[in-house]
Amino acid sequence: MHALSHELRAIADKAPILRKRMEMMRAIRAFFEERNYLEVETPCLVPTPGEEVHLHCFSTWLETPDGRPPEKLFLHTSPEFAMKRLVAALRCPLYQFARVWRNGEKSATHSPEFTMLEWYRPGADLTSLMDETETLLKALLPSSLSYGSDKVDMSRPFERLTLQEAFSRYVGADLLGTSGDAFALACQAGVALREGEGWEDLFFRLMLEKIEPHIGRERPTFLTHWPAPQAALAKKDPQDSRAALRFELYIAGLELANAFEELTDEVEQRARFLEDRARRLSLYKDQDWPLDEAFLRAIAFMPPASGIALGFDRLVMLATGAPHIDDTLWLG
User: Who contacts 244 (Cβ-Cβ below 8 Å, separation ≥6)?
Assistant: First the structure.
């Protein structure tokens, strides 16, 4: 028998990771089925891929045999809009393993095509969604997790840290008090503004350089209550409207999940979308598509709910110690 080619050997070598991937997928399905979640499937090709300012999409043209002009469609960057329409219609908890696409993203922790585990729970606030997420991950990952140089204690309660607290602790800045004022934030942080750097650019630079190196290392960290402009789909905090009810989850240097307590006000959501569209088109002229009117109509009928998107491939990386996201993909 001929020896396997180098390409085929590379696939065979990651078989243990791929088997673990499928075991985890089965365990996740069992977790949600036990909690009466309904598994759903939504279209990958959509007329509106989202309203994120900085995400880039893959596009194609739909041709029909009846002579109509071709329609431009996009591979979705998230199933979020479609799943919220289903929540509005069915009013029950839903989950999905969704294949999603984001152009221009390729690194050890990013793949342009990846799997998102996304779920929505009517009646859940942000705290109860953190509780459920923590329960799921403790069921899937070992109590002592080694990844890279980090040793994470999964048995302890996950840290819950607001961004305001994180900026005070690690940057020495009043994040919400400087909102929109890049110069003030730079002064408090003790850094120089770069040419053309606005408040949002500086916010993400400080996140990368001063906060992310410190969180989720000894135990997982929920980073909560993001500035409202960074959470266009989330309700504002009723205690402080400068912040939104959003969290991200960090474990061993990986940003693993992003969650919202969902905004269900159609008028406010439309206004936020229009603001984000204006910002996106000022930066990326080709990233233009119609508003998702079906989504906007539906959210007025959504029950109070929270939802989360979790990078499933990154979760497999944590479970197996895989250093590169391609190691977790069948043909990465």
Answer: 225, 226, 227, 228, 230, 231, 234, 235, 236, 237, 260
**CB distance 117 to 136 below 8 Å:** no
Cβ atoms within 10 Å of 145's Cβ, excluding its own: 20
Is pLDDT of 153 > 90? yes
Q: How far is CA 16 from the centre of its chain?
A: 27
Q: Give 261-270 pLDDT, tens digit per residue.
A: 999 999 999 9
- DSSP string spanning 121-168? EET--HHHHHHHHHHHHHHHS-SEEEETTEEEETTSPPEEEEHHHHHH
Side chain identity, residue 120: Y
Question: What pairs with residue 113 in β-bridges?
Answer: 101
Report the first-to-last Cα separation within the chain, whole angstroms: 26
How many angstroms from the chain centroid is the CA of residue 273?
18
- 131: left (phi > 0), else alpha (psi -120 to 50), else beta? alpha
Q: What is the pLDDT of residue 52?
A: 85
